[in-house]
Amino acid sequence: MPAYVIVGVDVLDEEAGLAYAAVAQPSVLSHGGRYLVAGPTPEPVEGTWDFSRFLVIEFPDMERIREWYDSPEYRRAREMRESAARVRMLFAEGSPPEGFSLPE
């Protein structure tokens, strides 16, 4: 079942952020990830979002996300972004097409 990485980002250092992206993006793609949403955070319909950029990345399954996140190339990318960006990241498994089941 597909799994997703949901990311909120504030870039603190544009040059370092670009260097991070140049390493992170090929890493995502090489592990079977596909960007579904990537860009400025849209205006919230409800509540607030405290990040200027928003990404949703789809992977074939949760195992592939963990392989990507723990890979040497993405560890390197994370080290590069330490002073370049403030990041919040969630991993979420997809649901079946019929949706979730309610308790009886």
Low-confidence stretches: none
Q: What is the average per-residue confidence, as pLDDT, rounded to a whole number?
A: 92
* H-E order: EHEEHHE
Largest sheet: 4 strands, antiparallel
Strand order of the largest sheet: 2-3-1-4
Number of strands: 4
Number of helices: 3
Shape: globular
How far do the termini sit from each other? 25 Å
Share in β-strands? 25-35%
Outline the secondary-structure elements:
Layout: E1 3-11, H1 14-30, E2 34-40, E3 53-59, H2 62-70, H3 72-81, E4 85-93
Antiparallel strand pairs: 1-3, 1-4, 2-3
Tell me about this structure.
The protein has 104 residues and is α+β, with helices and mostly antiparallel strands. Helix content is 35%, strand content 31%. It has helices at 14-30, 62-70, 72-81, and strands spanning 3-11, 34-40, 53-59, 85-93. The protein has a 4-stranded antiparallel β-sheet. The longest helix is centred in the first third of the chain and has 17 residues, at 14-30. The chain is globular, with a radius of gyration of 15 Å. The protein starts with a strand and ends in an 11-residue tail after the last strand.
What's a concise summary of this model?
The chain is of the alpha+beta class.
Which characteristics define this entry?
104 residues
